[in-house]
Write a structure and sequence with these properties.
Mean pLDDT: 78
Strand content: under 5%
Number of helices: 4
Number of strands: 0
Order of helices and strands: HHHH
Length: 65
């Protein structure tokens, strides 16, 4: 369970650790990448429904790009 939570925390958007890392690497271009990441998560939701939850959380909590 710990590995799953750690892996999900690395999603490269918003306040997740992956988001902070990606922001350091590419700066303000992160705002353009956010919709792409949301589309990828929505697509992954067809394989596991939990990805839709993360896509919704990012959409509503991080902001609409």
């Amino acid at each position: 369970a710990g590995l799953l939570v750690t892996g999900l925390n690395l999603i490269p958007v918003g306040q997740f650790d992956g988001g902070h890392t990606l922001y350091v690497l590419i700066g303000q271009h992160m705002r353009r990448l956010q919709p792409v990441i949301l589309v990828i998560l929505i697509g992954l939701g067809f394989f596991w429904n939990g990805w839709w939850l993360y896509a919704a959380l990012i959409y509503f909590l991080v902001g609409r790009a």
